[in-house]
Amino acid sequence: MAATGGRRCRRLEGETARAVLANADTLLFDCDGVLWRGEAALSGAPAALGRLAAAGKRLCYVTNNSSRTRVAYTEKLRRLGFPPAEPRHVFGSAFCAARYLRQALPPGAAAYVLGGPALSAELEAAGIPHLGPGPAALPGPAPADWAQAPLEPAVRAVLVGFDEHFSYAKLCQALRYLLRGPDCLLVGTNRDNRLPLEGGSAIP
Question: Which residues form a coiled coil (predicted)?
Fold first, then answer.
């Protein structure tokens, strides 16, 4: 697919596709639902990328799935039979969010994370203090207890991604950080409402 002047995409076929590929030295590929669904590569995708790599094209991968680090994506590409890739060839939303916060936050500021281990790992690699990943229980039996739970003074951003331990307790804490003042950033890793899986199924 290619964008036209009106920013709409049109399918590239035949000679047009060959001409575009001939003039491109780097190609960007989405991953979930494009190269694979869940743990199954789409039919023909590994072979097609293998031919492009053999022709000297540099292959890079972009994804708004924050549940994996760049290293994990290179391992998945290898496991599903795609050409070898290095972490520097993968631009995931977890990595990009960490890079953005490293630039946007003042020194010593921390992030509260509604997300999983991949977000935590990318923040760690970027040198950003953070808290929040993993299960969290409500701090008491009544709403008044929840409203009085301690807040970390250094938190200046709430980072939202795929969180297998998402709960009301974490949502409540995230909102309290955001309401504490206008200098607390809200950063989301994607706007998707579903994740495509094998066999045409999906999860929210």
Answer: none
